[in-house]
Fold:
Amino acid sequence: MTKLEMTDAMKKVVKARVLLMQESQGVASMLIELDLVELSAEECPTMATDGKRIFFSSDWVLQTPMNELKSVVFHEGCHVIWEHPIRRRERDPYWFNIACDIVINNWIKYDLKMTLPSDGVWDWKHRNKTPEDVYRNIMSDQEEKQSLLDQLSDLNGDTNDSDESNADDCGGGEDDGSDDGKSDTSKIFSDGDSTGGQASGAPTRDERPVLSGEVWDLQDDDGNKANKDEAKEFAKVVRSTASLNATLEKAVGNDSMGDAMVSAINANLDSEVDWVELLRDFLVSTVANDPTWSRLNKRHQWRGINLPSKQKSAEGGELAIAIDTSGSVSQYELNQFATEVEALCLDCGIDTIRVCYCDTEYHDTRNPDEDRTFIRKRGSSRDLTGDEEWWQTIEVGQGEEVKLYRIGGGGTDFDPPFNLFNNHTDDAEDCVAMIYFTDGYGEVSAEVEPDVPVLWAMTTADGMNEESCDAFGEKVRITFDNY
Structure:
């Protein structure tokens, strides 16, 4: 790294970090590892982090009171602890920034009982939620989006009126004994990169209010968004460091901060995959005119997920769902899954859902909420009347509610629904994808793979690690901790 001259703004940020060390050694210790990078106001209007560095505008730093600057520096450290630089994925950077800020500020305000910067944004109704949950709620509620913009505009107006220069807060040119701010910014903001001179994950503001403290995507040394392996290594280092620093907080008698950091670490572990967003990506990718999967979507490969790169069809489509009814999936889980699937299908242009219920065999679906006695299809005509319906059809495009049922019982065999789809369903070509909702304990044969994309929606972490579903399809862990 190229050493830079210690400007007044750099000295002030260093001093804020030193003062923070006196109050929160755990968070401050994580901040020590981040390089300080001074940028123009166009590149970084206030302060931001990509997990490796803290970026800041000198003008903004010099006009921000020290107590508020210290809070924003702390705020940036929280972005790192929560691994926000690797959690945005394909979400809109501006609104994901706001969602992350609400989560952090709720934690600072309600859990740590600390004072927030004057332009901080928080919301009690989003307390104890993940950024992914908050983002989803904001993006689905136009009134809330406008309310947040109005709130931020008011806060920005108050902040921008400040004429306090705080020259005395800059350290008077004295060296604080800390590092002198290292960084080579030429690769982060290059004219030839894919972002057109903007760091990956930095919000495109378009005259919208600016946040005091942003989170950008984790970047490699060449200024590109980190790949899957780099993101995993980042998460590993952050969790290890945060765990040690949580222990440090408790060792110095700051149990509340230590416990709060442990909670943040656990929240990261619980939120590694936002299954609703991944399911949305899966459906958007498969509702397409080209069903061949001839081109893989590069934006998903860093997660280890192979999805096609296609143009979305305006014609709608059908989705096939297989429900594991062996007794391992609860009605509560089915209800929550049904709610999300209905909303996502409507959003993605899916008009019809067909559902098959199966344990070791699939079941007659006539009147499932009235008659809980089901005939099992064993591949022979014995005990069958000819009136059986093996698919529950739900016309979501016509306003029909998605209701799923916990029927059947017994063992588990993953092959029957695929046999039903492949060999006994005349209009299977109308389906664009198939989702199998299960705990993951069972066997599937490679030869039953259908001619549509398959997603295994698994309710257990152990199921994700089982090799029984590796013959085909993608896996995603389904959790209901936030319901």
Notes: The first helix runs from residue 8 to 21.
